[in-house]
Design a protein that fits this description.
This protein is α/β, with parallel strands linked by helices. The chain folds into two domains: 89 residues, no CATH class; 102 residues, Immunoglobulin-like (Sandwich), CATH 2.60.40. Helix content is 42%, strand content 20%. The chain contains three helices and eight strands, in the order αααββββββββ. The strands form two sheets. A four-stranded mixed beta sheet has the order 2-1-4-6, with no helix packed on it. Bound molecules: copper (II) ion. The site of copper (II) ion has 6 residues, from loops.
């Protein structure tokens, strides 16, 4: 009994020693140790397996995502922008289109600037219509609301607004039109609006807005 017990203890001690030896050398204990070695081996293997795949996956993911995100983002933005623009254009186009058959159609009248004066000298338009001055003369021409030199007869107009953000809202070309150039203004105020050529102040015309 004592011998068997001793042998048993010796076996246990041997196993324990082997286990200690395997713990100190995990790499070499993969075959000898049934408990620690596999776990360590699996851990290290998993670590190695996981780490490399993560790097490639992450790299591929990062590399893949940005391009994927890029096109998607661009596509989204592009679509959004395109839709936005399309919407604006669509909104802009239908409005005149829908207005055309229903009610009012804004018209554009042309006044020719000649060497002898404005032609026609008097033009009658509807509220909201646009008058376009085209310089077909041999000199610069600066159409502007009466009265020289302040140009303040047409509501809201003033030569002092030339060069400001309000320039497009006043009845004043704010510059001499060269041959071939034109200036357009939309009349939203009813009345009889006299204007003149500001540079030489020798041409006069009138726009009647009904
Ligand atoms: Cu003037």
């Amino acid at each position: 009994m004592k011998t068997k017990l001793f042998l048993g203890l010796a076996l246990i001690a041997l196993v324990f020693l082997l286990g200690c030896a395997q713990e100190q050398k995990p790499a070499q204990n993969t075959q000898g140790n049934n408990n620690l070695a596999p776990e360590q081996w699996q851990d290290s293997e998993q670590g190695q397996d996981i780490a490399p795949p993560q790097l490639p996956e992450t790299g591929a993911g990062d590399a893949g995502n940005p391009p994927a995100a890029g096109p998607e983002t661009r596509g989204t933005n592009g679509t959004g922008t395109a839709n936005g623009r399309g919407g604006e254009l669509t909104q802009g186009q239908p409005v005149p289109g829908s207005n055309a058959p229903d009610t009012i159609v804004a018209k554009e009248y042309t006044v020719e600037i000649t060497d002898t004066g404005y032609s026609p000298q008097k033009v009658t338009v509807k509220q909201g219509d646009t008058v376009k001055w085209v310089n077909n003369s041999s000199s610069e021409n600066w159409p502007a609301s009466a009265k020289h030199p302040t140009h303040e007869v047409y509501p809201g107009s003033s030569i002092t607004k030339c060069g400001t953000a309000e320039e497009s809202n006043i009845f004043d070309a704010c510059r001499g039109l060269k041959a071939g150039e034109s200036y357009s203004f939309t009349f939203n105020e009813k009345g009889m609006w006299a204007y003149h050529e500001h540079i030489a102040v020798k041409m006069f015309g009138q726009v009647v807005v009904e």
